[in-house]
Amino acid sequence: MKTHFFSFIVSLLTVCVALAQTKEPVIDPALPNVLLIGDSISEGYQKQVKEGLIGKANVYKNQGNAEWSGTGIIKIDSYLGETKWDVIHFNWGLWDIYGWEYDHEDRSPEAYAKRLDQLVTRMEKTGAKLIWATTTPGCKDPEKTMQNRFKKEVVITPEQQAKYSEAALEVMKKHKVEINDLYADILPELDKYSLGKNDVHFNREGSDFLAKKVIAAIEAPLKNLK
Asked: What pLDDT shows up at residue 2?
């Protein structure tokens, strides 16, 4: 009995030490609040952004994967909640371009733009500074999830992606939303940072690279806050 109890105490202490060693930011009510909205690309850099802005802002990420813009329409109110946001850094794009589970939906650039317009209009009501992250590049070969799970060969050319990017930028221009051009930043480094020619995701170094760009984009408006 004592052996089991001793083992339990040791395990509990191990967990406590591990938690103490993590760099989870402490929420400070005196600091501005920043919300990240996005898919798995933003999930890859959110931790680094939170750590990079410790002492400057409380950084939150929408729960789970924000998927395509249609998911955003459904969940935007829950993402925003009741928090007073100072900066919202956001993106929807890859899911609209590739489809995945939403392949049957209207994901045309025109429909995409209409949904983004609704989303930006809703976020504007928060009074937060809005920053649009351009959608990172599609992969060069048939995307692996569409190929493996849905048995479809889907290759998105730069020309095809440009139609979505242009549609999004027209919306952002209309609403005077600041642009964080992650697409242009990482494109020259794609071979270095990509997980593969059939994968839209990035390795750790790639996520770190994006995180630095996101931190820089967020820090600028934070300096203007009183």
From this structure: 46
What b/e sequence results for 129-138 when a residue is b if at least 16 CB atoms lie within 10 Å of its CB, and e otherwise? bbbbbbbbbb
Cα–Cα distance for residue pair 168/93, rounded to 1 Å:
9
86 and 36 in contact (C-beta within 8 Å)?
Answer: no
In sequence order, what E strands does the chain have?
A: 33-37, 58-61, 87-90, 129-133, 178-180
pLDDT at 15: 34
Say if residue 145 is exposed, middle or buried (CB neighbours under 10 Å; 0-12, 13-18, 19+): middle
Nearest Cα neighbor of 143 from 199, 79, 225, 101 is 199
- The pLDDT of residue 18 is 35
Cβ neighbours for 15, distance < 8 A, ≥ 6 positions apart: none
Lookup: tokens for 125: 């009501």
Q: Which two tokens stand for residue 54?
A: 């410790």
Q: What is the pLDDT of residue 225?
A: 84
Question: Could you tell me which of 55, 122, 52, 137 has the C-alpha nearest to residue 85?
Answer: 122
Which residues of the chain fall below pLDDT 70?
A: 1-25, 226
Sign of CA dihedral 57, 33, 135, 125: negative
pLDDT, position 26: 72
Helix (H, G, I), strand (E, B) or coil at 223: coil
Q: What DSSP designation does 67 have? A: -
Give the dihedral sign, CA 95/88/60/85: negative
Q: What is the model's pLDDT at position 25?
A: 54
